[in-house]
């Protein structure tokens, strides 16, 4: 990778990857269990080592420089290889008979699980999965052992948790194909507030960013219905005037298959990041290391949940 990597420890590589993935000093500090000032010092060292800012401030957020984008995948790959080396050689997926508990949304269950299970049958035919609906911020399920792994949109996690990024995309507003707003290019706040809204309660947090923006401006939307399932939300959306905030890759799939459309918001933007997350208590387990890598790699390769989708 070049001379800049020669003096970087494994710990520093993990810090660098977290900064490149999270792109937020306070959130990265929480994830790593350190202080924001310590991360600022690390970032300064990385910038000097690579001769590049890596993270560039844009408004109230950071974006990656071109060099930062170039480093993201190589650093992720190196750490993934090091994690593989830490897995005891005696562990063999083909003979593993464990039942893992995996949490996600019903969208993941519908579009990712079938192919995932077909692949699992080839490499680990004796492994079983209990799939459970994930609810936003229920990290206590991971801590208690109710689930082994969660895959979802997650903004931040407590320090005792670990995670790897699957991918990311943008928040959009979804509606039926013949909705009066369907002819708009982007939705202004007055257009957004003029119609009733629908919310999906399970899975990752898809709405709080827009509600926070509205509260800041002393505004609120008319939330008519909250449902736990994507399938139920789609049925309601197609037969009503309601609006629904969704990740773009899901809205795009619905637009291809189900007679709905989507538009970006003109007044606020938000990027979703998808993570595989686990608790520190399972971090060193050979079986868990293999399982989370299998889930992570499969989700990253999925046409329904891919990086940058």
From TrEMBL:
Record field: transmembrane: none
Domain of life: Bacteria
Keyword DNA-binding: yes
Organism of this sequence: Pseudomonas japonica
Name of the protein this chain belongs to: Transcriptional regulator, LysR family
SUPFAM superfamilies: Periplasmic binding protein-like II, Winged helix' DNA-binding domain
Domain HTH lysR-type: 8-65
PROSITE patterns: HTH_LYSR
GO molecular function: DNA binding; DNA-binding transcription factor activity
Keywords: DNA-binding, Transcription, Transcription regulation
Coiled coil: none
Family: Belongs to the LysR transcriptional regulatory family.
Signal sequence residues: none
């Amino acid at each position: 990778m070049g001379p800049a990597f020669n003096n970087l420890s494994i710990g520093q590589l993990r810090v660098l990857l977290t900064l490149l993935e999270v792109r937020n000093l306070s959130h990265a500090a929480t994830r790593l269990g350190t202080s924001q000032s310590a991360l600022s010092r690390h970032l300064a060292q990385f910038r000097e080592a690579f001769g590049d800012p890596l993270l560039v401030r844009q408004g109230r957020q950071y974006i990656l420089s071109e060099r930062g984008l170039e480093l993201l995948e190589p650093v992720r790959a190196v750490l993934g290889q090091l994690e593989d080396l830490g897995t005891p050689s005696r562990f063999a997926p083909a003979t593993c008979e464990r039942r893992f508990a995996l949490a996600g949304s019903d969208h993941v269950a519908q579009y990712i699980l079938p192919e995932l299970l077909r692949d699992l049958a080839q490499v680990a035919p004796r492994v079983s999965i209990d799939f459970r609906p994930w609810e936003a911020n229920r990290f206590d399920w991971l801590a208690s052992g109710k689930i082994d792994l969660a895959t979802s949109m997650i903004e931040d996690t407590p320090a005792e948790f670990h995670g790897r990024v699957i991918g990311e995309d943008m928040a959009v507003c979804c509606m039926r194909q013949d909705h009066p707003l369907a002819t708009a290019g982007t939705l202004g706040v007055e257009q957004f507030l003029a119609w009733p809204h629908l919310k999906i309660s399970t899975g990752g947090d898809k709405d709080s960013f827009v509600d926070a923006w509205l509260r800041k401006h002393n505004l609120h939307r008319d939330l008519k219905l909250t449902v736990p399932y994507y399938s139920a939300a789609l049925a309601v959306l197609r037969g009503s005037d309601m609006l629904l905030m969704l990740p773009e890759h899901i809205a795009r799939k619905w637009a291809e298959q189900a007679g709905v459309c989507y538009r970006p918001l003109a007044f606020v933007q938000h990027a979703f990041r998808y993570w595989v997350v686990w608790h520190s208590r399972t971090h060193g387990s050979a079986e868990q290391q293999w399982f989370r890598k299998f889930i992570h790699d499969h989700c990253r390769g999925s046409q329904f949940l891919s990086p940058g989708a």
